[in-house]
Amino acid sequence: xxxxxxxxxxxxxxxxAELAPKFTQAKGIEVDLAFNTVGALKQRFTGGEKADAIIxxxxxxxxxxxxxxxxxxxxxxxxxxTCGVAVRDxxxxxxxxxxxxxxxxxxxxxxxxxxxxxxGGSSGIxxxxxLKRMGLYEQIAPKMKLYKTGRECALALVRGEAxxxxxxxxxxxxxxxxxVVGVLPxxxxxxxxxxxxxxxxxxxxxxxxxxxxxxxxESKACFARFGLG
Length: 229
What we know:
The protein is α/β, with parallel strands linked by helices. The protein folds into 2 domains: about 1-80 and about 195-225, 3-Layer(aba) Sandwich (D-Maltodextrin-Binding Protein, domain 2); about 80-190, Periplasmic binding protein-like II (D-Maltodextrin-Binding Protein, domain 2, 3-Layer(aba) Sandwich), CATH 3.40.190. The protein contains 10 helices and 9 strands. Strands 1, 2, 3, 4, 5, 6, 7, 8 and 9 form a 9-stranded mixed sheet that branches. β1, α1 and β2 form a beta-alpha-beta unit. α1 (about 15-25) packs antiparallel against α10. About 45% of the residues are buried. The model has no long low-confidence stretch (mean pLDDT about 95).
């Protein structure tokens, strides 16, 4: 059986992990998936780690394209992830409909799970910058519990390690036992687009078939179930 290796950002792990076995069943091509943050995967890929296709944020894909590391014209847009807040299922849901409500949540929360910016997670980088812009970083930082991936943030909620989680809603939806409170209010909303592309020296046709499969109507519906527009 033909096999391809796909490196993928964690924000789209839910639908990609669900769809890969269906692709294998339909096309007879096995998919070896490697999930991590955009920053970590981009570093590994540019450092020489092999992949046939890579799924990253729009800016990261554009950077790889500019460097000539992906096949020209192979970019395939897959979906938009929105940063939001979640709690463990059954816990009280804070009101974050307004910026003031979001700030109150930050102030009253005992512990907050988030992506570690140092590990290259897009939501973690955004959140750290947001707190600094709001003048709250020094106050909130001691409450932060930082994890390498959004999935680990979600699992931290399930295990009771943190009261509140902040990352892409798609990463919470992919982990049973979490409940999405909502997306960040309009003034501070953060939406990140994700696209796939074929590596310059990758298995072109099998990788192209996989990316095409991810854009078919049933696959788009799967992405939508995970909150990816």
